[in-house]
Amino acid sequence: MGRSNRCPECDALNRSGENFCWQWGRPGFRPCGAGPVLANPVPSTTRHLPPLQPGSVLRHPGDSRRRYGILFTRELPTSVYYDALDLTCQSCNYPQPEIPPDGLCLRCRMPLRPVLIHERPPRPASSLPDVHIERLLQLSTGHVNILPHLAILQYQESFYTVTGHPGTWGVVGYGRRQRSPDEALNGTAQAGRALVYLHNHRFVHAEVGGASPESLIATERGKHIKLADLSTCTPMSSDDRLLWKQIGNDLAFLACLLFYLATGQELARAGIESAPAMLQPFIERALRRQYATVQDMLADLSLRPAISTPGPLKYSCGQATHPGLKRSRNEDAVVSFTLEDSQLIAGFYLVADGMGGHDAGDLASNIVKQTVTGQLARIRTSPELLRAGLGAESTLSELLTQTIQEANRTLFRYAQAQESSMGATVTAALLVGDLATVANVGDSRTYLLREGRLEQLTQDHSLVARLVDVGMIAPHEARTHPQRNQIYRCLGHRSDIEVDIFTRQLQGGDILLLCSDGLWGMVEDVEICRILEEADTPQQACDALVEAANNAGGEDNIGVIVVKLEGVGV
Description:
The protein is α+β, with helices and mostly antiparallel strands and 570 residues long. The protein is built from 14 helices and 23 strands.
């Protein structure tokens, strides 16, 4: 065993020949005097060093002002994930020297941005050129199944990929959870669509040696799968034979992913016969390179027979708004309509909250309401549009996304013309058959009550919610946090806006709740759940929820829609 050396600052024991202390002077950290940060790091095949410790600060090699504070560590067999804070304040650009205990900027007292960092061993062939890194950072923002990347840091011992924090998340290649065949196929298709997107932009995902499922994370309790690390990507080769091999690597990646999702085991350590019989043909075709492209594999997956056909559902809804007890104006707006004919049942529901403290918040929410209603008016007169997309999750997601983006553009243009800073938050649900497609921008929420459990489907775009996501504060502390009203995404402030989309399969007995922060900010979840369960009708539930918010102080406007789903006998 080679001679070891100790850090003169923290006395940590390091490997012989190391230039940086793993505790404090690890690549990207404060140097321990043993040598400078490498400008052009040399690749290494050494397995990653011990994980970074909570409280450590990871520095960008090319910009000393960019640094990330490590909060929590999740170690995997070959890589590590870190929940962290971007220590360069997004509001005043001040670089924090260390992690503030309250997660607030030491200069302007605004919450710092949470990030997710994936550390993995370095590339076996060579480092990524800066031009490719910049291109991958750009591409990461263009697909729903790729986490937006902020930086890719390359060092001798490790690569670090920094992304925006996804909120509640889990690692796909961890825990050996066995999913149903439908879930496994759906997850593989999501990853496959991300690979097709990369291929269309002349990148492949798997480098020599393959890409690991550890580069994938799951959000929404495992329903959505996203690529969290594009540092394994390489440009497509101009040589046909090498390109064939590159595409084959990505197909093998999807085959291994499908097997893992369905069995909770690694394909390299288990026989293909361990997979459900209906999935084995897809795995075998991908491994034998019987698909020319990833798109061909996705097309094959889409032809699978439906495993189950849910029964029809009937919707009933109620709605209510109230200015609350502290405000004279009501800046909340609600929209609801249900469409039924002999072949289809569909519904659309929306709550918009004009930004409190902004110019004409009531006008802002009504502009959103009118724009969305106009965009979706064709659904009332052309139900065949929805029949064509019945059960087609991507089609309904695109329809809802485009509708809200148009509302944003309309509000933005009006605000610019009036030289106003008006804005609005919004949450909306488009129900077709038993599929709910839910959207949100800002901190208006959609909940699902099922079998006594109330689940928040949407994720707040607020600075305090980010602190909850990374564990800096507890959920109950968010209600009284001094920055609880600060949101970082809303309609009307930019010409383009990112809309979060969530989907749920519905069943009889489910209840959906759409509401503004005037409700959830005043009434605890347990009380909301009790009211929803005890009300005889959706309208009674809405009225009782408004009353509860006012009884708790009524500090803000209140907007609420309740949708109850009942099974219909066939």
